[in-house]
Amino acid sequence: TRHLLGIKDLNRNDIEKIFETADNFKTVLNRPIKKVPSLRDVTIANIFFENSTRTRLSFELAEKRLSADVVNFAASSSSVSKGETLIDTVNNILAMKVDMVVMRHPYAGAGIFLSKHVNAQIVNAGDGAHEHPTQALLDAFSIRERYGDVEGKKVVIVGDILHSRVALSNILCLKQLGAEVMVCGPTTLIPKYIGSLGVKVEHDLRKALNWCDVANMLRIQLERQDIKYFPSLREYTMMFGLNKQILDSLDKEITVMHPGPINRGVEITSDVADSKQSIILDQVENGVAIRMAVLYLLAGQQV
Ligand code: CP
Fold it and tell me: Are residues 122 and 147 in the same domain?
């Protein structure tokens, strides 16, 4: 494919190819000179219609480490506020001889829509509650780094599964790689179709944590909820928040992940987020190597 729109378009070989390429780029990133000439003369536009810290900066760093030319577009400071459409916006950016578009958008399917209407390679940096493919790739890559392999690992995703593009992309990616996946959260935040994805469902946090090797803790996405869901944040923390007392009471030492941004004291306490069992900042570090790999392979259209 020319694009990376979702994990659903990738098979196991594609994912393993991305990981092997990311291994090489991670070696490069640990050298004193981190830059390679691979994407010289490729121009990439990062267009963000929704806020981001990690994804936006790590795409930009990945592009710069690959020697691409980079332009950044934030919808809030653009002519979108004057009524310009998504297709017009992107076609105007492309008229300036841009080759690739990395896009985050609040609407599910925005990247798929764009890929059908403009002549550029599209990378999905998160589309509403649908997919966040590079996040899932960097998460699975971080599990592989911790354990040597993802196959057979037991991963529980805890929290707001219903509104989470990270959850859907993680489930698809981990299943492709042979992991066992469970979701854990209140019934109101777990979609009815989840069983069809071949994942287990658990509503008791302790049981879920005692089952798993890895717990990926998600935040409650209040910005995607038009009505007030049960439970309240206070109730959510009491039932599904991960704290040190729970972590230390488990039968084995599990690995704790979080895609960020963290709401400290809600889904995870600081002493867990900052503990040696947490690989949260390793995930962020790996994001640059994974995005370098994705852009490099797309530029060669090998994915
Ligand atoms: N994990 C993630 O997508 O973070 P940002 O929203 O800050 O990019």
Answer: no
